[in-house]
Specification:
globular, 11 helices, Rossmann fold
């Protein structure tokens, strides 16, 4: 891999290879000394033009545990806030000797532009671009699902036959798009559930089923339910659902709904959560929840992505 921009760029074998590498990375994180010397002498730049907590800290921890130097570069307080173009920022990072750039942007396609415009030669990692994709989040979700649904003999395994339900604000969710692409690539059966106004145009050609009734979707006894954050800050003008109460009544994972799920079903959420709105607090903290585990797994998965992009270059120098 030269870049990590979109799940659509990955083959099934490449996706499984990253997941398997993440398993090895996770094993190292249980040691007393969790750092590996793999990327000594390399510099990873976190270019975050949009606010983030989990993703930024996760990438920083991943790079540092591989012994890379890390530069955190945010739009606020930088020349980007003064109107500097993405091109000039890229040229600056190139001149400073960045070996890889992790980019988060509110603009769909920003990571792809950085990777292919010819401004910078280094690997680009998409840490979320607008409502388009969030490929490393999908990888950590698949990693978490594989650990719970496949079992001990999971190296080299996919998610064939597993049923995954993804619920909520699909329209504004880069997480949903990446997960549909990755989970179906790995053989899972994916169902999207959302109010009609929160289903993107063209979702009918995605490799998944689209439903508008959560209870119908849960009646099919899924292996996992992934709740999405309702991104009210992107809902300019409103009108996506009648009232918050009506949304919660029809699409929230309530205590009652969770109690009707099969015993083995797990609950995921990419965070941050709107507790009591899209997911009940006791469900988010309950025995089915793997939400905190997702955050921990994010470090191992992002270590694996950086390893695949940079380790061979580092070993040659």
């Amino acid at each position: 891999m030269k870049h990590f921009i979109s799940i659509a760029d990955l083959s099934r074998a490449e996706a499984i290879s990253v997941l398997d590498t993440a398993e090895h990375m996770a094993e190292t994180q249980s040691r007393s000394i969790r750092k590996l010397p793999t990327l000594v002498g390399t510099t990873v730049v976190n270019l975050f033009m949009e606010d983030s907590t989990r993703t930024r800290i996760s990438f920083e921890a991943a790079a540092k545990r591989l012994s890379a130097d890390v530069i955190n570069f945010s739009a606020k307080g930088s020349s980007l806030s003064k109107g500097e173009s993405l091109k000039d920022t890229a040229l600056t990072l190139q001149a400073m000797g960045a070996d890889a750039v992790v980019v988060r942007s509110s603009s769909s396609g920003a990571a792809h532009l950085l990777a292919h415009a010819g401004w910078i030669d280094q690997p680009i990692v998409n840490a979320g671009d607008g409502a388009h994709e969030h490929p490393t989040q999908a990888m950590l979700d698949a990693f978490t699902l594989r650990r719970h649904l496949v079992g001990e003999d999971r190296l080299g395994a996919d998610l064939a036959g597993r049923r995954i339900v993804i619920v909520g604000d699909v329209l504004h969710s880069r997480v949903a798009r990446s997960n549909v692409l990755l989970l179906t690539l790995l053989g899972a059966e994916v169902t999207l559930v959302a109010p009609p106004a929160l289903v993107p145009v063209g979702a009918d050609i995605w490799p998944c089923e689209v439903l508008y009734d959560l209870d119908d979707a849960l009646a099919a006894q899924p292996d996992a339910v992934m709740m999405l954050r309702v991104q009210r800050e992107r809902m300019i003008g409103g009108g996506f659902f009648p009232t918050p109460g009506e949304y919660s009544r029809r699409f929230a994972l309530t205590t009652d709904r969770a109690a009707r799920l099969p015993e083995h079903t797990i609950v995921l959420h990419p965070g941050p959560m709107n507790r009591g709105f899209e997911i009940a607090g006791d469900v988010a903290d309950g025995r089915r929840s793997v939400i905190t585990e997702q955050v921990a797994n994010g470090v191992s998965v992002r270590m694996a992505v950086l390893y695949h992009l940079l380790a061979s270059t580092s070993e040659e120098t």
